[in-house]
Recover the amino acids of this structure.
């Protein structure tokens, strides 16, 4: 066909990295992600956080930055910097795990609806539209409150409520692929539907899924932060959102303990921005229609 | 003084290596009330040439050299405000593809009416409305449809709306860029007749752009044929399509390449090969690669546009050598 | 108007679906809410049976469901043991406050967001455009509640000057209605600004992208050819066309707005639906949580319906063809 697709299989991973690096937005995003993943993966190894290591007395509570605590201490006298490092790990972990669920569900529904069309498509799209308009946060709060404060619950709740946009995007791409010549041809040669989906459809929707996935990570990290802030975070696995929750309820703002509520907030801002920039840049590379944009 | 005098116009677009010239040294003159046709394959620079007259080219393009004198004013030297005063009031455009050229969320009446009061504040709202309805009647659309939206019209009707819109300020020059492509043959003929009769009625000059020479042959007083950014041949319709005939090998091939829209469909004899890539440096005649009567000098020397008498001029070494022979 | 009726039918079926979903979510999955209460308060068997009836948890599942539906139709949203009050009364008070907050910030977001988006989109690629895009992306990446915390810190602790909590000054005596309104207005400033800051970024980006797409359309060249001024071209010809994709994206916006409002209400103790949900989560007050979830969702469904209707008005092509 005349339209040229940039597929992951024909260009490979390096090609896209190079393209991303050439776009200022993509380059900044990659740099940010590199730094945050370093913080999340490496730092907790050297500066582990022990939630039970609380301060000895009242004088060690919410103290400002010092030699012993570079970023001060929290309301229980624990080190904020170490907490920040391990919080990065939890935030990133929840964001990525939820995204994996969301991507599998979303692209699965999208590909099947777009490929089989007809009544299955109509049915799946009605469900998708329903979840698209139902406000996510109240639903997440309701589910989180019912199923309990547990990291698995949070991952599942966010993952299973973030897929509708992916499904919509993947479906429309699959639909347009379906109209092209090679599907009827492959069918006449005796390929099964599943085989056609695997060999002809999936490679072509992959770049789109990847671009969308990167943006979904950003959304999932924000959702996790919000849920944890509301008080639904796992108390044993403190994420940046949970840190902000405890700093809020412990009155860190009123006591001017900026070292407690500024770092996690900037952390979230930084990591979400990184994913957003890379996602937008990737979208620009794979979708020539948006090439004119800055 | 001619209405429009384009002299040695060069228009360039940037590309990877720097820039390339979509219009490369073109001269074109349009007299008051004259109907001039501009032909050539897609990508030969017709639209770029036409849109450079009211300075409607995309922002990244550049007029590198030459002048466009309209009614004695050089439009290349005008600022945005000066251009706005000329656009539509003096020079209007019938754009290619009326469906996309009309705003989908405005009624056609308001779109026709819009430029009237912008260019002449003394016109009352009522007068502008009346003029709009008159124009609609003139192009054959019942006036009660003024409040309809573009998507409610057929392709031919939309093109009529475009024509009415182009005439709303009674400009001196109307540029019609492929006004009949994508229309069926019957509608094409009707639209051409309409254009011709309106121009005669209102004493307008028109620049009609088409890739189809037979269309121009029936409607225009004079034609110019462009190839790869340059004028290959130009002259009065009566000479080029009549007594003397087309002289440039490219014009001759073009004539054979399209069926006549009013007569029987002839076998379409395409031109082998493709137009040259303008972004690479050119030496010699640009048509030489595709020309079956090319001489050896065609590959190295650029042919000049030579007047062969009767207001007809041709840019071809073969023709100029024969000319020398005759003299 | 058959189309309108069809959309009403879709809306009703969506509301019905959410009501049913809500029933199963809160009545079946968490097991027995009575046990949760019994855990915190010592109750005898008789009291538990009484509670069961008041929760509508006796009888078969189907009869529970129908009883639930008929109670809903009568406006009965249950009883809160936390507030010791009927839920409908609690929710009714909160609903108005949230509506006030949402209206105020939506006004800012829509007017400023569109203006800035059009500004940036019509200057695509220029420095002012890039700066707008970058700052929008940064704003968009900030958690709403954190922006609120920063503002609380700035105006409550650091600089001061604006009320940072509640809807009105506690124990204040007002000599007239105007004073009362002014007090509420002052309390409204920071929550509104917080909500607007994050959501405006979303609006700017969507509007900008839509306008850029529209600017490359052929009819924009026609408008230029007509000799219109730049401002007329952008606003009269570009704007209305660009609003169509923006309206399509409003479903996402409405959802984001509601999510943002919940966070803002928590941070500023604004006594609306969000704060109600937050407190319900902390107190595990399921009847309030259920009612606020149901009402919020239905309100969002209705808002989306309204946006869809507005689309029909703005786009003549859809109005006729469907």
């Amino acid at each position: 066909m005349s339209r040229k697709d940039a597929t992951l299989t024909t260009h490979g991973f390096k090609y896209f990295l190079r393209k991303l690096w050439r776009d200022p937005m993509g380059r900044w995003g990659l740099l940010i992600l590199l730094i945050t993943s370093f913080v999340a993966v490496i730092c907790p190894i050297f500066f582990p956080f022990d939630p039970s290591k609380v301060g000895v007395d009242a004088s060690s509570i919410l103290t400002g930055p010092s030699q012993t605590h570079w970023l001060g201490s929290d309301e229980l006298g624990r080190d904020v910097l170490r907490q920040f490092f391990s919080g990065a790990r939890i935030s990133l972990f929840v964001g990525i795990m939820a995204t994996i669920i969301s991507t599998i569900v979303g692209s699965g529904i999208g590909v099947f609806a777009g490929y089989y069309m007809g009544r299955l498509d109509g049915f799946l799209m009605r469900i998708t539209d329903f979840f698209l308009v139902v406000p996510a946060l109240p639903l997440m709060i309701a589910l989180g409150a019912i199923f309990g404060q547990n990291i698995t619950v949070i991952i599942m709740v966010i993952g299973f409520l973030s897929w509708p946009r992916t499904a919509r995007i993947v479906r429309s791409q699959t639909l347009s692929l379906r109209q092209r010549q090679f599907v009827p041809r492959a069918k006449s040669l005796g390929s099964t539907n599943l085989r056609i989906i695997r060999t002809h459809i999936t490679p072509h929707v992959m770049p789109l899924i990847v671009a969308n996935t990167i943006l979904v990570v950003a959304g999932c990290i924000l959702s996790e932060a919000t849920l944890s802030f509301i008080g639904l975070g796992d108390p044993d696995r403190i994420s940046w959102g949970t840190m902000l929750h405890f700093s809020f309820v412990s009155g860190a703002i009123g006591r001017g303990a900026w070292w407690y509520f500024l770092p996690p907030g900037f952390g979230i801002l930084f990591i979400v921005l990184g994913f957003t920039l890379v996602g937008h840049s990737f979208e620009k590379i794979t979708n020539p229609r948006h090439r004119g944009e800055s | 003084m001619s209405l429009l005098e384009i002299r040695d116009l060069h228009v360039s677009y940037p590309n990877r290596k720097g820039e390339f010239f979509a219009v490369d040294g073109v001269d074109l003159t349009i007299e008051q009330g004259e109907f001039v046709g501009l032909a050539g394959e897609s990508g030969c620079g017709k639209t770029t040439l036409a849109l450079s007259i009211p300075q409607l080219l995309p922002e990244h393009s550049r007029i590198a050299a030459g002048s466009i004198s309209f009614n004695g004013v050089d439009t290349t030297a005008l600022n945005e405000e000066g251009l706005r005063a000329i656009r539509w009031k003096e020079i209007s455009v019938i754009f290619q593809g009326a469906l996309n050229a009309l705003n989908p969320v405005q009624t056609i009446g308001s779109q026709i009416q819009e430029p009237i009061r912008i260019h002449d504040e003394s016109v009352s709202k009522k007068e502008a409305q009346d003029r709009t309805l008159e124009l609609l009647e003139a192009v054959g659309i019942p006036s009660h449809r003024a409040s309809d939206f573009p998507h409610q019209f057929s392709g031919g009707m939309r093109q009529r709306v475009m024509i009415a819109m182009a005439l709303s300020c009674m400009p001196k020059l109307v540029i019609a860029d492929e006004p009949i492509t994508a229309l069926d043959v019957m509608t094409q003929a009707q639209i051409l007749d309409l254009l011709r009769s309106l121009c005669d009625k209102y004493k307008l000059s028109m620049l009609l752009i088409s890739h189809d020479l037979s269309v121009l042959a029936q409607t225009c007083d004079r034609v110019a044929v462009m190839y790869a950014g340059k004028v290959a041949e130009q002259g009065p319709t009566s000479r080029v399509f009549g007594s003397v005939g087309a002289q440039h090998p490219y014009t001759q091939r073009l004539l054979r390449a399209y069926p006549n829209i009013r007569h029987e469909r002839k076998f379409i004899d395409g031109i082998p090969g493709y137009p040259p890539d303008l972004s690479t440096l050119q030496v010699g005649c640009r048509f030489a690669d595709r020309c079956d009567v090319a001489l050896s000098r065609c590959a190295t020397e650029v042919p000049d546009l030579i007047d062969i008498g009767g207001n007809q001029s041709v840019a071809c070494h073969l023709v100029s050598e024969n000319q020398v022979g005759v003299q | 108007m058959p189309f309108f009726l069809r959309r009403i039918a879709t809306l009703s079926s969506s509301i019905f679906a959410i009501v049913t979903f809500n029933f199963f979510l809160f009545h079946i999955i968490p097991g027995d809410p009575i046990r949760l209460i019994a855990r915190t308060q010592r109750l005898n068997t008789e009291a538990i049976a009484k509670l069961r009836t008041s929760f509508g948890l006796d009888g078969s599942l189907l009869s529970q469901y129908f009883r639930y539906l008929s109670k809903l139709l009568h406006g009965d949203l249950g009883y809160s043991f936390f507030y010791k009050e009927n839920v409908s009364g609690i929710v009714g008070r909160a609903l108005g406050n949230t509506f006030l907050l949402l209206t105020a910030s939506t006004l800012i977001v829509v007017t400023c967001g569109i203006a800035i988006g059009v500004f940036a989109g019509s200057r695509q690629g220029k420095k002012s455009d890039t700066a707008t895009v970058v700052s929008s992306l940064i704003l968009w990446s900030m958690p709403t509640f954190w922006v609120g915390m920063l503002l609380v810190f700035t105006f409550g602790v650091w600089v001061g000057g604006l009320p940072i909590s509640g809807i009105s000054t506690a124990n204040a005596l007002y000599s007239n209605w105007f004073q009362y309104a002014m007090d509420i207005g002052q309390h409204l400033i920071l929550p509104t600004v917080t909500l607007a800051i994050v959501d405006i970024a979303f609006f700017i980006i969507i509007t900008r992208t839509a306008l850029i797409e529209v600017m490359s359309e052929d009819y924009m060249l026609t408008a230029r050819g007509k000799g219109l001024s730049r401002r007329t071209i952008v606003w009269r010809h570009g704007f209305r066309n660009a609003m169509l994709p923006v309206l399509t994206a409003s479903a996402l916006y409405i959802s984001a707005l509601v999510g943002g409002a919940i966070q803002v209400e928590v941070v500023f103790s604004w006594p609306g639906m969000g704060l109600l949900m937050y407190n319900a989560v902390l107190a595990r007050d399921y009847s309030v949580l259920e009612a606020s979830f149901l009402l919020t969702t239905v309100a969002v469904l209705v808002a989306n319906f309204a946006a869809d209707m507005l689309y029909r008005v703005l786009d003549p092509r859809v109005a006729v063809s469907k």
